[in-house]
Amino acid sequence: EGVLPQEYTALKLKVVEWAPKAAESLKGKIPDGVSVYLCPATLRPETMYGQVCCFVGPSLSYGVFMASEKEYFVITERAARNMAYQGIFENEGVPEKAADIVGSDLIGTVVHAPLSFHPQVRVLPMESVLATKGTGVVTSVPSDSPDDFAMVTELAKKPDFYGIKKEWAELEIIPIIQTPTSDLLAPHLVKKLKIASPKDAKQLQEAKELAYKEGFYQGIMKVGDFKGEKVEVAKPKVREQLIQNGEAFAYSE
Ligand code: A2H
């Protein structure tokens, strides 16, 4: 972990339909009229137009925490403690947990992804999601994140192995940011560095650094309300818009 706090944008992906296992395990634990959200932490709010799915660690433990009377968040216990400390929850003190749920039971759940060209996306597995970072939930933007592109490619290749439907991992990847190299920077870099799977950690790290630098310093928005503006300029504006709309909140660690 670095010395400076990381300022994330935590997105609110509202659950539209629980996967059967999640529905079973949560039965009777969520009061009627409550909206439940998966809350991925991101450093790239300006890419949210390109969300195609939402990753959880299949073997990670999550809780369903009460943010307010009407809104519950699916996040790790660790993130819930941090959020409580940061005053994100309505109640003070120890966060109230309505239920426990393992990541694998969430796979297949349909969520609403704010700003995305694909308003409804599925929860899918990613082994490399860390319990020790962010909320343990990661929204997937394969156009601009090499990790995300490598993972959705892997999921579409072996849907049976991962216990998912192939089409859940095959939503169209739409260009969001134009850079001097490409308007689909992550797929471009994954191919160029010959990354064959999410296990190619070393090349993925390199791709991630290249994509982040080029996207941030040389990227131009191709879509959305800030189309034509530099990423550097658009990033805080998209973030503010999401927060104003109640679709995201500031989270740091
Ligand atoms: B980013 P940093 Cl388009 N485990 O969001 C693994 N990865 C996690 C995580 C966890 N528990 N929590 C967050 N992340 C990912 C978008 C994105 C991201 C794009 C491009 C690059 C990128 C869409 N996924 O991150 O270690 C989240 O993915 C590359 C740095 O705190 C989050 O932002 O610097 C980023 O890692 C936070 O990484």
From TrEMBL:
Belongs to the class-I aminoacyl-tRNA synthetase family. This is leucine--tRNA ligase. It comes from Canariomyces notabilis.
